[in-house]
Amino acid sequence: MNAALTPAQLLTSLEWRYATKAFDTRKLPDATWAALEESLRLTPSSFGLQPWKFLVIADPAVRAKLRPVSWNQTQVTDASHLVVFARRTEVTEQDVNEFFQQMVAERQADPAALEPYRQMMIGGVVKGKDPAAQKEWAARQLYIALGQLMGAAAALAVDTCALEGIDPAAYTEILGLQGTGYEVVVACAVGYRSGADKYAQLKKIRYPKARVIAQV
Ligand SMILES: Cc1cc2nc3c(=O)[nH]c(=O)nc-3n(C[C@H](O)[C@H](O)[C@H](O)COP(=O)(O)O)c2cc1C
After folding, report:
1. Domain annotation for the chain: domains and CATH numbers
2. Whose CA is nearest to atom 26 of ligand 1?
3. How far is the CA of 124 from the centre of ligand 1 (A)?
4. Which of 9, 23, 88, 136 has CB atoms 3.0–4.6 Å from 51's, for a disulfide?
């Protein structure tokens, strides 16, 4: 049974969350973090191809190195957890095949019956996109994971701050990702808000429903 939040509970969580500027030193309980990590792994992606790696930066020394290349944002060093989202630098036929083989094995499927799907993935992502378009596609998948992490965290009363204010190339270098087939796009701090964070009190600025939702 998939226990649902009530609509009111969901909205309470989404209104409670805000881009946390100041985290305190509390660490997330292990079970809470494990669930959020699973929210990353369970993120849906186009064709299911999962062109990503999520780096959880635990080492305070590494986090200290990342902060100056993050507009010196304190969330990078202070939050309980820091997740860095890296995309595949290119999507290859081998990537498609790895995913395909796992799908065939775990679903005990007939590879011949699924071959049209494999061809669709190769046509759609490997051959159908130039290198720049592949990177752009992979980044879009990462943002789904970022959104899912932030929504899941809010549901667990955990704070987050998405961090685009980072130097992705510097992150890629500091984290030793060059030559691995992955590069950094965005990050997210996860933890608990400091009681002193005045941003928590600010009114949320959102356009009215009539402007952003169209009934067609
Ligand atoms: C992709 C993305 C990147 C962001 N980057 C930063 C950042 O680097 N630093 C920061 O303080 N806030 C960052 N934010 C927070 C936004 O400014 C914030 O979500 C927006 O103003 C709406 O406010 P709210 O999240 O508090 O409702 C980012 C948000 C998103 C979605």
Report:
1. 26-91+129-212 (3.40.109.10)
2. 18
3. 32
4. 88
Instruction: Give CA–CA dist 212/207, Å, rounded.
Output: 7
**Counts of helices then strands in the chain (DSSP H, E):** 9, 4
DSSP 8-class letter at 28: P
How many angstroms separate the alpha carbon of residue 20 from the centre of ligand 1? 8
Distance between CA atoms of residues 152 and 75, nearest Å? 19
Q: How far, in Å, is the centroid of ligand 1 from the Cα of 82?
A: 15
Distance (Å) from CA 194 to ligand 1 centroid: 17
| 1 pLDDT above the threshold of 70 | no
Spell out which residues line ligand 1, taking CB within 6 angstroms. 18-19, 21, 73, 161-165, 186, 204
List the residue whose alpha carbon is closest to atom 18 of ligand 1: 19
pTM exceeds 0.90, yes or no:
yes
* Average pLDDT rounded to a whole number, residues 71-84: 98
Element (H, E) at 188: strand 182-191
- Six token digits for residue 68: 């100056």
Which residue's CA is the nearest one to ligand 1's atom 16? 19
CA distances from 198 to 129, 161, 195, 206 (A): 45, 15, 8, 19
